[in-house]
Amino acid sequence: MQLVVARIGRAHGIKGEVTVEVRTDEPELRLPPGAVLATDPAAAGPLTIETGRVHSGRLLLRFEGVSDRTGAEALRNTLLIAEIDPEELPEGEDEYYDHQLIDLDVVTADGTEVGRITEISHLPTQDLFIVERPDGSEVMVPFVEEIVTEIDLEEQKAVITPPPGLIDDRAEIASSREGTAGGEETGGEES
Q1: CA dist 40 to 5, 45, 80, Å?
Q2: Cα–Cα distance, 170 to 191 (Å, whole number)
Q3: Cα 115 → chain centroid
Q4: CA-to-CA distance for 133 and 113, rounded, in angstroms?
Q5: 105: alpha, beta or left, given left = phi > 0 and alpha = psi -120 to 50?
Q6: Please, are residues 165 and 171 in contact by the beta-carbon 8 Å criterion?
Q7: What is the model's pLDDT at position 86?
Q8: Residue 68: count of CB within 10 angstroms of its CB
Q9: Could you read off the pLDDT of 13-70 as tens digits, one per residue?
Q10: Which positions ≥6 away from 137 have C-beta within 8 Å?
Q11: Residue 182: its pLDDT value, please?
Q12: Complete DSSP assignment for 64-113
């Protein structure tokens, strides 16, 4: 099975290094020197990692055969794809690969059907499930333990406890004017 593990960013310096947007929780396993990765577009690869280092919080890679800025810039926006065993599981107990989560049924704790996970969006602050509802609309569910309470791969479902308004229109909006009479403010100090 093939997984996207990174996207190549801009060139760094003049010796062929590139910045990399990492899309795996295991970069040390997927992006070590010597790793051979397929690419999208396929014409850019396969690429073999020659060196890797972290600089100012960003991963920098250099590939065999790419020794200058021009060659590095030509790789910009290329996706790096690793071949993994489909039976392989992440090291952490509560970690999952995207392919394990895609197509899971999403239900609430009381069993109400919400939809099916069609995509995982990896944002800088958190991951989101893109869930297709039975009516064809989509809802985004933050993949945080307060909301996603259970992932059951055997049953092929994700159980969520959504806050009001996340998957329905029943959001409760508290007005700051609620409980006031005649336009008077309450709870403030008098001058």
Answers
A1: 11, 8, 7
A2: 39
A3: 19
A4: 9
A5: beta
A6: yes
A7: 67
A8: 12
A9: 899 999 998 877 778 888 899 999 999 898 888 999 999 998 888 889 999 999 999 9
A10: none
A11: 46
A12: TT--SHHHHHHTTTPEEEEE--TT---SSTT---HHHHTT-EEEETT--E
Contacts of 166 (CB under 8 A, 6+ apart): 139, 141, 147
* Cα separations in angstroms, 168 against 127, 141, 163, 165: 20, 12, 9, 5
Rounded CA-CA distance 70/74 in Å is 6
Strand-strand pairing, 138-142 and 127-132: antiparallel
Q: How many residues does the chain have?
A: 191
CA-to-CA distance for 62 and 13, rounded, in angstroms? Answer: 11
Q: Is the pTM of this model over 0.85?
A: no
- Name the more confident of 9 and 182: 9
pLDDT digits (tens, 9 = 90+) for 132-165: 999 988 999 999 889 999 998 889 999 999 888 8
Whether the bond into 46 is cis, omega within 30 of 0: yes
| Rounded distance between C-alpha atoms, residue 144 and residue 151, angstroms | 11
